[in-house]
Specification:
Elements (H helix, E strand, L loop, with lengths): L2 H40 L6 H9 L1 H18 L2 H20 L13 H32 L5 H27 L4 H14 L2 H11 L6 H6 L3 H12 L2 H15 L14 H15 L2 H14 L4 H25 L5 H24 L5 H16 L1 H12 L2 H33 L4 H18 L8 H26 L1
Length: 479
């Protein structure tokens, strides 16, 4: 690959990956602020732990909304323009979450209406996350040559965990050396406001990257699609062959398809992966890390600092994932992660039931984070972005990512009441789900390493033929 071509591809992948950074930033910023929000807007109003859990998780409602509309928007206005909308929503959410009293309320006077307004701003940011989480990996996948597609989509996931790490450091620096009273009054506002900077940068850089060639072909703008494919692949022959494959895949002039055109199996596999990557439990750690570490004996400042280790570990192991994903393959990493997460999470629960919580529990939690962020964290998003055929990709990815955020909302909002009853024993549930994930991946998930998006489509067409043949045989036996 020529240097100019390589730099160009990595530049556009890096810009799209800023959507991942903001995804990580927006979802993890609540970890530093959630206890202050609880005091200011929940406890002061005499509301329950369920309301607190909902407030921590409210952005996920927006994530679901954003994911639902992402397919429609990306097919109507394009992948890049959808990301532009996400950037604007990130900016508005950061401003409103930091100062929810803006325009309508008196500063420092909590009320139920103010709590609702705060949650609305968080939901707005969540819509941006939902759009970015669905479209940024798809954008990168559609812009990447097959031999480096895995690496480039993993860059997106690295940006997610890097965003989480940055916000952990920012939250810690804001809180460092300050009194609890200051943090609960002003500090949490600075945490949310800090997102304004990356949101503005994301918006500005998006103006310098193109639409994807597959979207151009979808809109029958074949000349522009060919020019961009040549620039990406560095070869007129590859560009011509790829464009012909895309045209054949789309077949837009002669055939209309519905979401089930390629059979049910591709949808079941993609949707189940989407649900499992959340029910394994990583976001419980990301959203409630300071609270969990405090329960293990750390003070407030130390627990905030320990969350940085979660982020640093995530970034380091993501670098390992970049090296492994196109070498070892997607399926191998998913199997490794499922087994490792199951062992780590069951070990966390065991230390609770044996009443030996402390450093050992912390070690198992960090091991779980490392294993997840090296495997399921990046790989699930890679597989979801490349699994679905072009004709249904926008709609199918939207459904899968909607399920990601629905599962995330369910897991994170139920953690506070479960934690009240079971403590870290709650992690036994997530460990058993990880064990189930191992057998699901082993049985149903195909390997997509080094396959073009159109070659992956052929896998599902073959599966559809088998599915239809099996159905016909069953009908004949019934008759």
């Amino acid at each position: 690959m020529m240097n100019n071509q390589r730099y160009y591809i990595f530049f556009i992948a890096a810009v799209a990956s800023l959507g991942g950074l903001l995804f990580g930033y927006d979802t993890a910023v609540i970890a530093g602020a959630e206890q202050s929000i609880q005091l200011y807007l929940v406890d002061s109003l005499g509301l329950s732990s369920f309301v607190h859990g909902f407030t921590v998780s409210s952005a996920l409602i927006g994530c679901i909304i954003g994911a639902i509309i992402s397919g429609m928007l990306s097919n109507k206005i394009g992948r890049r323009n959808t990301l532009v909308i996400a950037a604007v929503l990130f900016f508005l959410s950061a401003l409103g979450s930091a100062y929810p009293e803006l325009l309508f309320f008196t500063y420092g006077e909590p009320s139920l209406a103010l709590l609702v307004t705060f949650n609305i701003y968080r939901i707005i940011g969540g819509i941006g996350v939902g759009l970015a989480s669905a479209i940024a990996p798809m954008y990168i996948s559609e812009m990447s040559p097959a031999n480096i597609r895995g690496k480039l989509v993993v860059l997106y996931n690295m940006a997610v965990v890097f965003g989480q790490t940055i916000v952990y450091v920012v939250n810690w620096r804001i809180a460092s050396g300050q009194t609890s009273a200051w943090i609960n009054d002003i500090g949490w506002r600075y945490m949310f406001a800090s997102e304004l900077i990356p949101a503005a940068l994301f918006f500005g850089l998006l103006l310098f990257i193109p639409e994807t060639p597959r979207y151009m072909a979808l809109k029958k703008d074949y000349d522009k699609a060919y020019t961009l494919l040549e620039k990406i692949n560095g070869s007129k022959q590859i560009a011509s062959e790829t464009l012909q494959q895309i045209k054949h895949s789309l077949n837009t002039s002669t055939e209309k398809v519905n979401i089930f055109y390629y059979g049910k199996r591709v949808l079941i596999v993609g949707m189940t992966l989407a649900i499992l990557c959340q029910f394994i439990g990583i976001n419980i750690i990301l959203y409630y890390a300071p609270r969990i570490f405090e329960s293990l004996g750390a003070d407030s400042s130390t627990s905030m600092f320990q969350t940085i280790f979660v982020g640093v570990i995530s970034v380091i192991v993501s670098l390992i994932a970049v090296r492994l994903i196109d070498r070892q393959g997607r399926k191998f990493l998913l199997l490794l992660g499922s087994a490792g997460c199951a062992i780590s999470l069951i070990a966390v629960a065991t230390t609770f039931f044996l009443n030996i919580e402390g450093i050992s529990t912390l070690i198992f939690i960090l091991a779980f984070v490392a294993l997840f962020q090296m495997t399921w964290g990046p790989v699930a998003w890679v597989v979801i972005s490349e699994l679905f055929p072009t004709k249904i990709r926008g709609q199918a990815v939207a459904i899968a990512v909607t399920l990601v955020w629905g599962a995330n909302l369910t897991a994170s909002s139920t953690f506070p009441p479960l934690n009240e009853v079971l403590g870290t024993g709650t992690f036994l549930i997530y460990g058993l789900i990880s064990a189930f994930a191992f057998f699901f991946v082993l049985k149903f998930v195909p390997e997509t390493k080094n396959k073009s998006l159109e070659e992956i489509e052929e896998v599902w067409l073959a599966e559809k033929k088998i599915e239809l043949a099996t159905t016909d045989m069953a009908d004949k036996k019934a008759n």
